[in-house]
Amino acid sequence: MKILVMLVGLLLGALTQPGAVGAEEFPVRLADVELLQSLRDGGLVIYLRHGTTDTAQPDRVPEVDLNDCSTQRPLTEEGLQSAVKTGGAIRAARIPVGEILVSPMCRTIETAEAAFGEGYTVHNGLMYTAHMTSQQKKYALETINELLSRPVPAGSNRVLVGHAPNIMDAMGYFPTPEGVTLIFRPLGANGYQYLATIPPSLWPQLLP
């Protein structure tokens, strides 16, 4: 809780107060060409929400089997293609990518592979939190705050492939639609700053 209070106090309004329930209440900022240049310079965190999923096949409750994708909500073909296009846009924009950390869910792993290929690492701390208790969420919350706050070397960007509820838990923002990209500036001990949102449909407008 101390970390959340610190973030809200220091980020000059970039984060919402606790209790915000979605994108409509959150001051969403769409990316522009200046943000694209900042990404080329590196030192930022790129958070990619997994692609579009088939809601007719929900996750098994209360717990999925991480080794059995049939127990999890799957990506649609549209979701796979969206990830392919996002990865292609990042490369076309000449945005350098360093470490890629991915939730252990099948839909996030498939999104990462479609967007970036095989060069990723599964991180259990990015696990989907929607079905977790408050106690179970502690590790995930610590993880997301640490990965968004930890500095990234210039000339590279950290990529996280995860879920909307994890961002909601951390900063009161439920990013939509599926396949959306969020950009953060890590501030070390001072937390992190939300910079912009890039819906899948915005990437073509940002590219030269």
- H and E order: HHEHEHEHEHEEH
Shape: globular
Helix segment tally = 7
Q: Mean pLDDT, rounded to whole units?
A: 90
Described by its quaternary structure, the protein is single chain
First-last Cα distance:
42 Å
Helix-residue proportion? 25-40%
Please give the structural blueprint:
Elements: H1 2-10, H2 33-41, E1 45-49, H3 77-92, E2 100-102, H4 106-116, E3 121-122, H5 137-149, E4 158-162, H6 164-171, E5 181-186, E6 192-198, H7 203-206
Parallel strand pairs: 1-4, 2-3, 2-4
Antiparallel strand pairs: 1-5, 5-6
In short:
The protein is an alpha/beta fold and 208 residues long. It has seven helices and six strands.
Descriptors for this entry?
208 residues; globular; 13% strand; single chain; 7 helices; alpha/beta; six-stranded mixed sheet
